Every structure is written in structure tokens, then in C-alpha cells.
Amino acid sequence: MKYTMVGLILIFLLAPMAAFSGQPDIEYHSASQERQMPFSDAVRVGHMLYLSGNIGNIPGTPQLAEGGISAETRQALENIKLSLEKYGSSMSEVVKCTVFLADIKEWAAMNEVYLSYFPSNPPARSAVGATQLALGVRTEIECMATLK
């Protein structure tokens, strides 16, 4: 059988689509059905878990960890760790994070804490300075992870 270059490209591009039978399995997770938040805590799509942004609040309360950007970053990452474990993943499975900072000048202090949570094989990351974050927080971090 003889294939042209265009034919080979089409086979390469369409073969994965042929193996895909229908919509991916999607699960929406919320920490509390009583909460009236317009978002899910996490969404699983196939083997990926997408977490909503986490802030440095003490779990179950709106109170932020005291101590500025370092304390808020540590608490946000602890909150992420809890969510990942709750939904079947872990910090070692994180493949991408986005960090939002109320003041980009606090990047170094945030980064010092952040690095301690990813000592090897750090995930891809973006860090963005914002003029203001919700609830007056210093940082918000969102992550994507694979499932075990």
C-alpha cells in the first residue's frame, strides 16, 4: 500500500480522534454543597485534575495565615496539598501552577516557599502580578495535576 505525505499526515492526525469514543468523563467536586460559590473546588477530566485557585486561608475559615506573603503562600500550598489528596492526586503529580501575586515585588519571598513544596521535578509555572486579588489576599495559586 502506497501513502502520500498528505495521507500519512491525515492518518497521524485522525488516528487519535478515531480512538476517542465520545466525550471525556468529567467530575465536578465541591467542598460543600451549602457553599454558594460560583465555581468547583476541582474538576477531573479523564486523568487530569484541575484545581481552582487556593488562597492562604486557614481551612474552614475565611481567616488568612498571619505573616504576609510567606505565610499565605505556605498555607495556600498546604490547602492545595489537601485538595489534591482528597481528590486522588498529590504534590508530586502537579504538572502546572499559576501564581497570582498582589505585588510582584513579593515574587522572591513567594518563590522561596514555593520551591520547598517542589524540591524535584518542579511543575511548569507562571507567576503574574495583579493590581488586587479577591478578599485582599497577597497570593492565589491554581494547579493542574495528573491522577494516580
Topology:
Layout: H1 5-19, E1 26-29, E2 42-45, E3 48-51, H2 68-86, E4 94-101, H3 107-117, E5 124-129, E6 139-146
Parallel strand pairs: 4-5
Antiparallel strand pairs: 1-2, 2-3, 3-6, 4-6
Helix pairs in contact: 2-3
Q: How many domains, as an integer?
A: 1
Radius of gyration: 19 Å
Helix-residue proportion: 25-40%
Strand content: 15-25%
Beginning-to-end CA distance, first to last residue: 41 Å
Q: Give the strand order, joined by hyphens, for the main sheet.
A: 1-2-3-6-4-5
* CATH-level-2 architecture: 2-Layer Sandwich
Main β-sheet description: 6 strands, mixed
Order of secondary-structure elements: HEEEHEHEE
- Which class of secondary structure composition applies to the elements? alpha+beta
Shape annotation: globular
Mean pLDDT rating: 87
Question: Which runs of at least 5 residues are low in confidence (pLDDT < 50)?
Answer: none
Q: Total number of helical segments?
A: 3
Summarize the structure.
The protein is α+β, with helices and mostly antiparallel strands. It has helices spanning 5-19, 68-86, 107-117, and strands at 26-29, 42-45, 48-51, 94-101, 124-129, 139-146.
Q: How would you explain this protein's 3D organization?
A:
This protein is α+β, with helices and mostly antiparallel strands. The protein has a single domain, classed as 2-Layer Sandwich (60s Ribosomal Protein L30, Chain: A), CATH 3.30.1330. Helices cover 30% and strands 23% of the residues. The chain is built from three helices and six strands. Strands 1-2-3-6-4-5 form a six-stranded mixed sheet, with helices on one face. Helix 2 packs parallel to helix 3 (107-117). It is globular, with a radius of gyration of 19 Å.
